[in-house]
Amino acid sequence: MTQRSHFPFDSAATTSGWYKRGSRGVRGYSGAIAKKRQLLLRERTEDCRLLNMETLKSARKDDSGEAGRDLSEQIKAATKENHIRAENTELMLSYQKGQITLPQYKVLLCSLYEIYKALEEELDRNSSHPAVAPIYFPQELSRLESLERDLEYFFGQDWKKRVIVPAATHRYEQRLRKIGKDNPELLVAHAYTRYLGDLSGGQVLGKITQKSLGLSSKEGLSFFSFPGVSSPNRFKQLYRSRMNSVELTKEEKAVVLEEAVAAFELNIQVFDDLQKMLSITTETDISKRSLAATRVPVSPILQFTIGLCVALATIGAGIYAL
User: Which residues cross the membrane (predicted)?
Assistant: First the structure.
């Protein structure tokens, strides 16, 4: 996976950690390495400046109660109704009630894998695009490897042969591929919707899943863990400030907002399709069990008698044919 050299502000690259590693100064290093360190320091300084600006803007917004002109605030306002609908799908309600089942979680992992595979491959391919570069954090946010570990835990080493997803997941994947090829700036809407949603609810949903499934360890729950992000709230602030720094025309911003609404709709369709798929599977299993329960038990003696009769009839037919 292509990895853009971001300087994470809240994990291994905290101020104290950075200066500790660089305490020897630039003396003894080549000019190229010294220059790179200076560039990284400037990038981190800019990140901190943007973070402070984002914090001030959030405070002003809270005081006024009005959404500002920032892209992140506009997306939040535009998708508010869709967000509520997504939370009220049967699959998400099961989560909220702490009643997620193993079949639900396994099919959800399968769909998330296909979605993130498409999203992250398109982000990688467009990492230098002016709209994508500011919000490209593969080291901090990448979910693909985590999902692969979880799928292997539940399905075994041949998990790729056992991944089954509904039609809605394929539509979501195809949409990501299309905009990655034709309109990379629209990836901003999907990355924001998915990653910040996962960061916001990851810890809570991870605990609910572990308790509901009776898992004794964190195995199978890698998707909910972001080891490169020590403070989700602060990272989300940085992410929003980076996204707000993307230069878009008024028309382009309007299209991004429409795509954010479409992203929520695609997620809702996936949740609904997964639940339908599980319902069909459950009904089929119940039908099979009912059929097995209504079968008349046959004693071993009767089985032997029927088998003997069939054998004699076959032999008789053979003799007659001769």
Answer: 301-321
Contacts of 3 (CB under 8 A, 6+ apart): 138, 139
- pLDDT of 167: 96
Q: What is d(CA 45, CA 25) in angstroms, rounded to the nearest whole number?
A: 18
Q: Show the DSSP H helices in the chain as ranges.
A: 15-21, 31-64, 71-78, 80-87, 90-96, 102-125, 138-141, 144-155, 167-182, 187-213, 232-244, 250-294, 300-321
Q: How far apart are CA 163 and CA 111, in angstroms?
A: 8
pLDDT digits (tens, 9 = 90+) for 25-80: 444 445 554 554 455 455 555 555 555 454 444 434 444 444 568 999 999 999 99
Dihedral of the CA atoms 31, 32, 33, 35 (nearest 10)?
80
**Nearest 5°: phi and psi at 164?**
-125, 130
Q: What is the DSSP letter of 224?
A: G
Cα 82 to Cα 132, 168, 263, 267, distances in angstroms? 24, 17, 9, 10
